[in-house]
Specification:
The chain has 61 residues and is mainly beta. The protein contains 1 helix and 3 strands, in the order ββαβ. 15% of the residues lie in helices and 44% in strands. A 3-stranded antiparallel β-sheet has the order 2-1-3, with helices on one face. The protein starts with a strand and ends with a strand.
Amino acid sequence: MLKIDNLEIKSAEKRVLIADYAVFQPGTSYLILGKNQSGKTLLLKAISGQYKAVSGDINWQ
């Protein structure tokens, strides 16, 4: 299970992404939708550890 709680990501002092709460269960498919430049790739990079979040938690269980 992947749990995201109060995640905030900034890029060049601009707040780019805020995710209050999300839980992703194993064996389930999810779709991330959003407009161009809305932070979809940034969220995936933060989950994979390629980008550091300013605050909040990303927990794998």
